[in-house]
Amino acid sequence: MTQQPLRGVTSLRFNQDQSCFCCAMETGVRIYNVEPLMEKGHLDHEQVGSMGLVEMLHRSNLLALVGGGSSPKFSEISVLIWDDAREGKDSKDKLVLEFTFTKPVLAVRMRHDKIVIVLKNRIYVYSFPDNPRKLFEFDTRDNPKAHPLHTLGLCDLCPSLEKQLLVFPGHKCGSLQLVDLASTKPGTSSAPFTINAHQSDVACVSLNQPGTVVASASQKGTLIRLFDTQSKEKLVELRRGTDPATLYCINFSHDSSFLCASSDKGTVHIFALKDTRLNRRSALARVGKVGPMIGQYVDSQWSLASFTVPAESACICAFGRNTSKNVNSVIAICVDGTFHKYVFTPDGNCNREAFDVYLDICDDDDF
What we know:
Elements: E1 2-6, E2 9-14, E3 20-25, E4 28-33, E5 38-44, H1 45-48, E6 49-56, E7 62-72, E8 78-83, H2 91-94, E9 95-100, E10 107-111, E11 114-118, E12 122-127, E13 134-139, E14 145-147, E15 150-151, E16 156-157, E17 165-169, E18 175-180, E19 193-196, E20 202-207, E21 213-218, E22 223-228, E23 234-239, E24 247-252, E25 258-263, E26 267-272, E27 280-281, H3 292-299, E28 301-302, E29 305-308, E30 315-319, E31 328-334, E32 338-344, E33 350-357
Parallel strand pairs: 23-28
Antiparallel strand pairs: 1-2, 2-3, 3-4, 4-5, 6-7, 7-8, 8-9, 10-11, 11-12, 12-13, 14-15, 16-17, 17-18, 18-19, 20-21, 21-22, 22-23, 24-25, 25-26, 26-29, 27-28, 30-31, 31-32, 32-33
């Protein structure tokens, strides 16, 4: 998720298991542990300049960097791999790989054996990190600008060792393409599987940890639809609201029992997936048969719980560690520098447990 700088933040990303998040800033890069909240390291402006995108590889020493902001040291058309384990005080000693293109890089995704780089209408997949070579190249529908302050490089990559699934926008409006990188021969143009998910352009997409379910929302932002990645069948339809909104983030809980979503309305919604009876339904659903015009509205499932963050501040959200069997938590990280943790129960109670300003938390050591 990216947005115009507030307090110097240009983009935010969780790592693959959502235990850390990285913060690209006008002043460099910061890496934080989520629970407990603490800064794990930083790269200052002298080392890397202002940054547009940062992506972590789990909790390893490798970072993918893309320049951006008002005083970049690196180009927005290049992805540089920073290896903090390498010795040397000069930043050049830490930069071990570079991928350069002809258009700006919109997103980067990594797993232990591959790196995915997203451009406006093309996606590249390379072997990684040893002896990188291009494995695949996919043409896509133009990655949309869903909001003037929110440029998207739509793509998600399953981190599971058992499944190498990649999802990105299809050529048809509102469609998703799924590619199993493990069963596709490198250098070939094997046709991906297509899911016709929405009537308008896709604005947000996310895979669960094992890669068995994909969730997506369109630019309209009222509905989130979940599909089985094997059968391509729709599993459930979740309603965020009735007013259009820009969705910034969708994430699954670690066991796929819940899903959370954030938008420009300043609300983080929490849905039940394992037991969908926990989700709220329209009061009209108890009336019985209704006309076709409102049938979809009545049948939709609404969030079981929600909480608000500053509406003018975009955020990413993810699930925290469970404190007990019946108490779960959601973390929201905002570009205004604030950290929010809410706990919720299956009956829909949702209360704030922690608040902090992560930009005020400093670590004396470099990353």
